[in-house]
Amino acid sequence: MVHPVVKLxxxxxxxxxxxxxxxxxxxxxxxxxxxxxxAIMGASGSGKSTMLNTLGCLDRPTSxxxxxxxxxxxxxxxxxxxxLRNRKIGFVFQGFNLLSRTTALENVELPLMYARPGLxxxxxxxxxxxxxxxxGLDERAHHHPSQLSGGQQQRVAIARALVNDPALLLADExxxxxxxxxxxxxxxxxxxxxxxxxxxxxxxxxxxxxRYTQRMVVMRDGRILRDEQVNNRLKAADELxxxxxxxxxxxxxT
Amino acid sequence: xxxxTTFRIAARAxxxxxxxxxxxxxxxxxxxxAVIAMVSIGQGARAQVEAQIASLGQNVILVMSGNVTRGGFxxxxxxxxxxxxxxxxxxxxxxxxxxxxxPEVRAFAQVAVxxxxxxxxxxxxxxxxxxxxxxxxxxxxxxxxxxxxxxxxVALIGKTTADTLFGDGDPVGQIIRVKxxxxxxxxxxxxxxxxxxxxxxxxxxxxxxxxxxxxxxGGTFLRSLTIQAATPDLxxxxxxxxxxxxxxxxxxxxxxxxxxxxxxQQEITDMATSTSKIMTILLGSIAGVSLLVGGIxxxxxxxxxxxxxxxxxxxxxxxxxxxxDILLQFLIEAVTLSAAGGxxxxxxxxxxxxxxxSKLQWPTLISVESIVGAFVFSAMIxxxxxxYPARKAAQLDPIDALRYE
Lengths: 254, 405
Fold this sequence. Notes:
The complex is a heterodimer of chains A (254) and B (405).
Chain A: E1 6-16, E2 21-32, E3 37-41, H1 48-55, E4 63-68, E5 71-72, H2 78-88, E6 89-92, H3 104-113, H4 121-134, H5 150-162, E7 168-172, H6 180-195, E8 200-204, H7 207-210, E9 215-220, E10 223-229, H8 236-253
Parallel strand pairs in A: 3-8, 3-9, 6-7, 7-8
Antiparallel strand pairs in A: 1-2, 1-4, 4-5, 9-10
Chain B: H1 4-16, H2 18-54, E1 60-65, E2 69-70, E3 73-74, H3 85-94, E4 98-113, E5 116-125, H4 129-132, E6 137-140, H5 145-149, E7 154-157, H6 159-166, E8 175-178, E9 181-189, E10 204-208, H7 209-217, E11 224-229, H8 235-249, E12 260-264, H9 265-308, H10 310-318, H11 323-359, H12 368-394, H13 398-403
Parallel strand pairs in B: 5-10, 7-9
Antiparallel strand pairs in B: 1-11, 1-12, 2-3, 4-5, 4-8, 4-11, 6-9, 7-10, 8-9
Helix pairs in contact in B: 1-11, 2-9, 2-11, 2-12, 3-8, 9-11, 9-12, 11-12
């Protein structure tokens, strides 16, 4: 039997502050099957970041259960969560979060450094290069992040997320710092990864971006407001063509 | 398991801020080089004193006349004149475990050869004296017990004296006049060097103690006795026997102080080196304090570094680094910092002490122990002072660390 990649059962998260308790997520149940491409949407304060942190094994539920790829994360300690992140999860952040003064290749190798059991150095290199190839950046393997454009940096981050062959790719506003053309570009990478079977969960507040996914989970005040399939889904390749034509039109008229 | 890459990461992190790294290391560099230089100077001084005392001979016990107080002034050792020839003979006769013994009578006198003359120290000793002090001969031979018994006018000449009076000529067989008493030189002494007090031991003439007392000093008391125990473990026993014998002979009541002084070589060494020991400890601990300050500097910089790199720590944790991985990363960084500082400090310290010994003519002694000790200690400082910042880094919450601006 195939496990759902993500299974939340009556998941709640309460942050206890000095004076008030904040109910970030209230009693949410959610299943995400392998191969799905899901957008979690919502305004700030809707609980989507808490969802992402929990799905990313960075945080644990206050109550309820979270199974990642069939593993109950509630019983795991700090180290076991770290190992789970290492093996099953790839993170892509809004701010790219690459290590500066470290080459793209070394950034991609980073998760492999913490793999248990460890890999020989040459294998690490090969896998990192292969991962960079997947995002079309193998030629820039020895560039530092500061020598790369925002889109390229995000690709390096995606390559880093892919290098351990994770069960779940988590993206937190991956296009938040990018212009529209580059955003579409990045969504194209996600779409092609998804076509090859990668399960992707992306947090965003932009409806445009969410329309590239298959399924939209809209949250408000810690609850799921809507959970629906995306109709008239956008294809990154088409949108890029459209954008190019528009730009040409602008150039012609001026 | 510590991977090589962990060291690479540490080295890279340190290279990233070269000036800061160097300044941080400076504390350790100064501390370690100061420890090494100070300890080498202290140990050098001690080694020199020990070598001089060792030149007294082996398993040696010194018996000196007590000091006398005259008109409120304490006079020097041997002034009381309480040691007599009879004491010496009694010790030779009655004390068990004595290998060799020699009295010592000392006089300053003018000696002359032909038309050359000079003032030198005349030492009246027994035939055992040369063996006692492991003092060799360059030429001729030692005078005999026979000579001592008959107060023969024979002499052994020190190197400095011989060089002054005879130049390149061979003094053996020549006549030397001491206070116009003619002595025949039977042997020339090997060079012995400076004494503890800095006088030239080679500027001397050794004669049988009987001859010295009868013909030169005219007195009957001895300045001191040098006695050699048969084995090192007999030293204390022989010392006690001598003490008991002398107290008995001098009729000293149980409640009164000795009118003589008995010291084993070990005691003399201890006394003479105690000052330099204290100096070494003092200099070493001042240098140690600067090492401590260097360690605090490392801790300070590591704390800054952890704060600066909170985001990096968050990223590493997000991709699967355990707390232990982060701890090791920062710990290794701190140890690399302190150990590298230690190595540079060792080089500077060794260089510094070489400079001191060549420029100031001070004796220095660089021991392997002090080098290894300084290195290990500096690495330990890295671990000790790096641990708290590293643990702080390891205990960061990945979510907070990722969100850190």
